[in-house]
Every structure is written in C-alpha cells, then in structure tokens.
Write a structure and sequence with these properties.
This protein has about 190 residues and is α/β, with parallel strands linked by helices. It has 6 helices and 9 strands; from the N terminus they run αββααβαβββαβββα.
Length: about 190
C-alpha cells in the first residue's frame, strides 16, 4: 500500500480535519488526524497494521505495547497479526503508568506502537514505563508521523507508514490564536 492510498483512508473516513487544534503535546496546528475514525473500520486497521509489521523484525519482539488511548486499536491489531501479547500504558492523574495487572517479564523486548506521532512525548513516556518494569523497548512504529523532519525523538529505531508534514506552533506564538480562531482539543486528553 502506498502513502496516497493510506491518506485516502483518512480522507474517506473524515479523519483529516482542518481548523485550529491543540495537540496532545500542547502545540497548536491547523490540521488534525483523527485515527480512531480510520481504525474503526477493521479492514483499515488490518491493512495499516500489516504495513507497520513489514517494517519490523518480528523475531526480535516478545510483546507489543501502546500508550493509551490513541495507540490502542492499532497496537492490538499489530500484536494480533504478530501473535504476540499486547499491553498498554495509560495516564492516571497525569502520569503514564502500567496498570490493570499487566506485567513485563525482565528483559522482554517490546515493540511500541502508536497511531500518530508529532513530538513523541506519549511514546517516550510509554518507553520509560516499560523500562521501569524491566522491559526493553526495541523499536517504535506509528501509522502517521506528523513531523517527519524532527530528529532525536526516540533512542531506538522507529518507522512510520505515512508521513505528513504538518506545521505546529507553540501556544504563545500560534498565528491561529492571534487571529482569534477558537481552538479545540480533539485528542484523548480532554477538551480545550
């Protein structure tokens, strides 16, 4: 599958939004990708997971982990196709944690799966939790990289299925804020 086909999935699902958005990183953007709308179609989820799996060494992975909530659907589908256990990290009182009785065997090699990466903050938090629990994050994959020119986001290899260079702004220098355009926070960390 090529990037044009993947981008068409987002467009057909009404998941490529234009407006004024506050991203989970706190940065602002005029474009937003709502992966949940794409991934609710199980054929899309299966096809995108297969794209991600083609970028990894399945033999070098023991488990799959995703940061909640955006990475849950694609992470579980990647794990299902790989035949590997799936777990996730989630925030409680603002702190990323491993909960729900999940455990990571000492030295386990984990593939970190996310839907969309911009700054990579949620993924780094997830990786830190994995390490705190004795695991070894070996690679990051994501469906979309919203900032493909960004460097140094992760200390492990990473790959994405689709790159979409979306300009983002610090809240204090956002031209959309300066124009008075109302901002919305459509992601998983609450409304603006």
């Amino acid at each position: 599958m090529n990037e044009t086909t993947m981008l068409a999935m987002y467009e057909q699902a009404g998941a490529l939004l234009n407006g004024h958005f506050i991203l989970s990183s706190g940065r602002h953007s005029a474009r937003y990708l709502q992966s949940a709308l794409v991934l609710m179609n199980l054929d899309n989820a299966a096809a995108l997971a297969a794209e991600l799996i083609g970028k990894v060494d399945a033999d070098g992975i023991d488990m799959v982990v995703s940061p909640a909530i955006g990475g849950l659907v694609i992470g579980q589908e990647v794990a299902r196709q790989l035949g590997k256990p799936f777990l996730f990290t989630e925030r409680k009182e603002g702190e990323m944690q491993l909960r729900r009785g999940f455990t990571i065997p000492a030295g386990a090699r984990l593939l970190v799966v996310e839907d969309v990466i911009t700054t990579g903050g949620s993924v780094r938090e997830c990786m830190a939790v994995v390490r705190e629990h004795g695991g070894n994050p070996v690679m990051v994959v994501a469906v979309v990289d919203r900032a493909p020119a960004a460097e140094g986001r992760f200390d492990v290899p990473y790959a994405t299925a689709l790159t979409l260079d979306v300009e983002t702004y610090a809240a204090d220098s956002c031209p959309l804020c300066a124009e008075g355009t109302p901002a919305v926070k459509p992601g998983s960390r609450g409304a603006a």
